[in-house]
Specification:
CATH class of the largest domain: Alpha Beta
GO biological process, one term: fatty acid metabolic process
Helix content: 25-40%
Shape: globular
Strand order of the largest sheet: 2-1-10-9-11-12-13-14-15
Strand content: 25-35%
Number of helices: 14
InterPro entries: AMP-bd_C (IPR025110), AMP-bd_C_sf (IPR045851), AMP-binding_CS (IPR020845), AMP-dep_synth/lig_dom (IPR000873), ANL_N_sf (IPR042099)
CATH topology of the largest domain: Rossmann fold
Keywords: Ligase
Pfam families: AMP-binding (PF00501), AMP-binding_C (PF13193)
Organism: Maribacter polysiphoniae
CATH superfamily of the largest domain: ANL, N-terminal domain
Radius of gyration: 23 Å
């Protein structure tokens, strides 16, 4: 089955609005018609099995083009609308993409080779009366690639994660099941759709017949809070920085009432316990889902049920339905209780591999198991705890240090909004510990440094105490909402 047909299985005539918001709306019926007309247009003018790049902020146009590409049996490559020219050139060349579909406001900022055809969003006016004479393949192979999502690795060139139609269906079904989503659900969307977490919101709510509220201006916290209330959102999804900013930078968030908000989800990195506790203390009746995932797993791998949050607050929970997780030690055996090792995953949501990168694929997927690159441990009850990324582990004088442990201690100080611990080269120790600290307001840096050092000295071993300090008053975010660490 094509993922398009899976989404619209019984919703192609639904008059209900799928997209809500102050700027634009569209019903399921209109979205189905517009998307399938666009698919027919692509089939006639471009053909099938082409890599089609889509560069556009969250909008009705993005959703229409995305669904149309998938239905047309082409492959969608959604890219960051703030992409650098160098990365764009690399991706266009790597994917041999003959087509770029771009928002009008963005296409003028980027340059393309003459061989690349640019389709701007006003194409929808041309396809509105397009007669659907195309015969679509209803015996479609769901194992075909549906999309390639490029990961923004911290080093080297980005990798293209190949996601099949089957991968999307499997992960969508699992998320719907554990979040108990229905047609009554409305989610506030601040996550971009070129990011797998953002796409999962679109996928799940399309499938259940729910609705989404688009907000591309998270920086204006008041608009996010207003949208949650005005459109009676039952759900909200964010990465750690979204919750940190709402809790620490908004004057009204914690005192606001959200009578319709049933749950929130958090993924895209670890949100430290102090912020989770602050949220659930402020909103005890709202379910808080801690989740874990990777682009290589389409989106989601595990979740922690809200009722267990207080008892297992550091945990990422257990595997979502349809997924198996295990921790393997250095000897290649299943780790014992609380023994550290690499987290491995298996399921129908695991990617096909990295595009044109067989070497990395073979290193990442072995015997059907995805090697996540995360160091984890499992407690006596079977709950999983992420210790650190393999690349994040700092070795100070030969001793292994997890940045997360130090960050938890520093974040206990009321002045601290955020902090990031990393390793820097050191001639004597091999690596020394650096911390970037974001505070509420400008502070006396010497006094703040002394306070941090005193707090760390009370709670950490001497070799875990930071040596270098950097202070800031704002969290620098990338386009997905994840923080950018100062050099």
């Amino acid at each position: 089955m094509n993922i398009f047909d899976y989404f619209f299985e019984d919703k192609q005539h639904l008059e209900k609005d799928f997209v809500l918001g102050p700027k634009e709306t569209i019903s399921f019926k209109e979205l189905y018609t517009n998307s399938i007309q666009f698919a027919a247009y692509l089939r006639e003018h471009i053909g099938t099995d082409k890599n089609i790049i889509l560069i556009c902020p969250n909008s009705v146009f993005f959703i229409t083009a995305y669904l149309g590409i998938l239905k047309s049996e082409n492959i969608c490559i959604p890219l960051n609308y703030a992409i650098e020219q160098g990365n764009l050139d690399y991706i266009v060349k790597t994917t041999d993409s003959p087509i770029v579909i771009a928002a009008k406001s963005l296409s003028s900022k980027l340059t393309f080779k003459k061989s690349v055809r640019i389709i701007k969003e006003d194409v929808l006016t041309k396809t509105a009366d397009f007669k659907i004479g195309t015969i679509f393949n209803f015996n479609f192979d769901p194992n075909k690639i549906g999309e390639i999502i490029f990961t923004s690795g911290s080093t080297g060139k980005p990798k293209g994660v190949m996601i099949s139609h089957k991968n999307i269906m499997a992960n969508t079904d699992s998320i719907i099941q554990y979040l108990k989503l229905t047609s009554d659900d409305i989610v506030g969307v601040v996550l971009p759709f070129f990011y797998c977490y953002g796409l999962s919101l679109m996928h799940t709510h399309l499938k259940v017949g729910g609705s989404i509220v688009l907000n591309n201006t998270f920086i204006f916290l008041g608009s996010v809070i207003d949208d949650l209330k005005k459109y009676k959102c039952t759900g909200f999804a964010g990465v750690p920085s979204h919750f940190q900013i709402l809790l620490k930078k908004s004057l009204s968030f914690k005192t606001s009432e959200f009578p319709d908000l049933r749950y929130v989800t958090q993924a895209g990195g670890k949100l430290h316990s102090i912020f989770i506790k602050e949220f659930i203390d402020a909103f005890p009746r709202i379910d808080f889902f801690v989740m874990y995932g990777q682009t290589e797993a389409t989106a989601r791998l595990s979740y922690l049920p809200p009722k267990l949050l207080k008892d297992k607050i550091q945990s990422i929970g257990k595997a979502i339905p349809g997924v198996s997780l295990k921790v393997m030690n250095n000897e290649g055996k299943i780790a014992k209780t609380n023994e550290e090792g690499e987290l491995l995953a298996k399921g129908d949501n695991i990617m096909l591999g990295y595009y044109k990168d067989e070497e990395s694929t073979l290193k990442t997927i072995k015997n059907g198991w995805l090697h996540t690159g995360d160091i984890a441990k499992v407690d006596a009850d079977g709950f999983i705890y992420i210790v650190a990324r393999k690349k994040e582990i700092i070795k100070v004088g030969g001793k292994r240090v997890s940045p997360k442990e130090i960050e938890e201690v520093i974040l206990s100080l009321p002045e601290v909004v955020d902090c990031t611990v990393s390793g820097i080269p050191d001639e004597i120790l091999g690596e020394a510990i650096k911390v970037v600290i974001t505070t509420q307001n400008k502070v006396d840096q010497k006094l703040m440094k002394d306070k941090v050092l005193n707090t760390c000295a009370k709670k950490l071993s001497m070799f875990k105490i930071p040596q270098k300090f950097v202070f800031d008053t704002s969290i620098k975010l990338n386009a997905t909402g994840k923080k950018i660490v100062n050099p």
